[in-house]
Amino acid sequence: MMNKSAKRFKWGVAIVALTLVLTACGAKNNGSEGPSASPTSSSTPLPTASDSEEPGEDPGELILKQFQDSAMASPPANELFASFKELIAEVEPAQADDMVRSLEAYYVKNLPGVEKEYEAEKVQQLLSKSEWPITEEKAESIGDAAVRDLVQRTYAGDTS
C-alpha cells in the first residue's frame, strides 16, 4: 500500500503537468507569450515561405511533424515544453490540438519513470521529513545530494 506522502506527491506531479499544458494553451490565446529569446539545444529552424516546399504542403503540418518527431525522441521535458510554447503559435487550431496530444502522450510515456525515482525508500523518507510543500527554495536544504539533485532536476523540468 502506498503511503500518504507518495500519493500526495504523485497527485502534485500530475497537477503540475496538467497546469503546464493548460497554461501553454492559454498563453497562445491571449498572446502574452512571445517567442523564446534564447533557443534551446533541441530547437531547429522553423520552415519559412522561402524554403523549398512541395506544392500544397502546409507549413503548419511541417511544424506539427517536427514537434511530434521531437516528442517521440523523448528529450528532457523542459526542452520539449519550450519547443511547444514556441511552435504552437505557428499552427492552426487543429494542428495545435495534435501538438497538445503529442505533449500529453510524452508525459504519459515519461512520467512513470520520474515517479519511479521518487518511490525509492530513501527518497520517500527524506521527502516525508521535509516541510511541505517542497518548494524550489526548500529543495536546496535537502541534506542528501542525490535526492536534492532529483528534486531540483524535477523543478527544472529535466526528466533525463
Automatic annotation (TrEMBL):
Bias (Low complexity): 35-50
Composition-biased stretches (Acidic residues): 51-60
Keyword Signal in record: yes
Highest taxon listed in the record's lineage: Bacteria
Signal keyword on record: yes
Keywords: Signal
Position of the signal peptide: 1-26
Region feature Disordered, mapped onto this chain: 28-61
Protein name: Lipoprotein
